[in-house]
Amino acid sequence: MSDECAVVWDDSLLSYDLGGDHPLHPVRLDLTMRLARSLGVLDGVRPLVPRQAEEAELARSHTSGYLEAVRVAPSEGPDVGHGLGTADNPVFEGMHEASALVAGASITAAEQIVSGRADRAVNLAGGLHHAMADNAAGFCVYNDCAVAIAWMLANGVERIAYLDIDVHHGDGVQAAFRDDPRVMTISLHQHPHTLWPGTGFPTEVGDGAAKGESVNVALPPGTDDAGWARALHAVVPSLLKAFAPQVLVTQCGADPHREDPLADLSLSVDGQRAAYRALRDFADRYAGGKWLILGGGGYALYRVVPRAWTHLLATALDRDVPAHRNVPADWMAHAATVAGNVPLPTSMTDWHDPGFTPWDGTVECSVDAAVRDTRHAVFPLHGLDPADSRD
């Protein structure tokens, strides 16, 4: 047993680069690591260098035909199919190697937890949750979340909870485990009627022996810190307590922020910081402290992602950064060289109170309707009362 947190990072992870003006630009990762170092969050931390995921490890989550298509796409071009060569998932040189490295980084993090060398492990380059078994989707080539979960299942872990707080539905991970009773997937996301990929309705509850273990909270556009936290705490703790996972895996996309250009939720960096603290508490309370932390979406590259994910790293390392801490001048100077005319943040806060009123069983607003719909869909399948706010 260890109480350490492993951080998986190497600049080679920046090679997952979809090119040009693609929204998933690796600069967000570079700026995050620079900001975390500048604030002292990573003092004394020796990051683990990832390896590429092996064929057999990828094949637990992807078909052989798809793996071959990814390998040959740079030479054969977009006609290779499988969702490759689209605007969302353009083909790029070294695509297999870069994608396998991201997946391998998530396995490297999982290895630390399963081996007992660390209780927590972070791969911010991961969280590519949209890739399906046989195709790329939503900026994601290999689904490192599913690959890491499958690796843990193959190496003795029997019950894993996956909690996805990206603004987009965690569809690829849900699809991978929708009939596997060993994995519970929970996704809080913008309502599928209003945002791609158009899935993640409360009625999607899983199949067969895993019925009730796919959980979806579909939040209305405009949901702010208070509403988001109200929904999280009204649904997630009861289900984690009932499921009793051995490891909690979280996908921590930074795109629920109100400045994100690809979505319509309204969280602040302060609300995101509070969310990460809640995830840490969930791991400690319901998963024996075992917490695998992955990145995800986030397209406000300069103003939001570096601050949000620096708070995430700090939370995982128990080195919480005070919300009102100023952004260091050296980071500002470097960021100015890559951000163009984008105004840079000067503080680690958005000056927003992330407090919320816990759900009390009533339906007073649209977030409460989302809570009601999810609880009624899945709580009875776990022996829980959907109307009782104590469950």
Automatic annotation (TrEMBL):
Tell me which Gene Ontology terms the entry assigns under biological process: acetoin catabolic process; epigenetic regulation of gene expression
Which stretches make up the Histone deacetylase domain? 22-314
Q: Name it.
A: Acetoin utilization protein AcuC
CDD domains attached to this UniProt entry: HDAC_AcuC_like
Its pathway, per UniProt, is: Ketone degradation; acetoin degradation
Question: Any idea which UniProt keywords this protein has?
Answer: Acetoin catabolism
Name the InterPro entries for this protein: AcuC (IPR003085), HDACs (IPR000286), His_deacetylse_dom (IPR023801), His_deacetylse_dom_sf (IPR037138), Ureohydrolase_dom_sf (IPR023696)
Pfam families documented for this protein: Hist_deacetyl
Could you cite one Gene Ontology molecular function of this protein? histone deacetylase activity
Q: To which species is this protein native?
A: Actinopolyspora xinjiangensis
Similarity field: Belongs to the histone deacetylase family.
Q: Where is the signal peptide?
A: none
Which PANTHER family does this UniProt record tie to the protein?
HISTONE DEACETYLASE HDAC1, HISTONE DEACETYLASE HDAC1-RELATED
Has the keyword 4Fe-4S been applied to this entry?
no
| Keyword check for Manganese | no
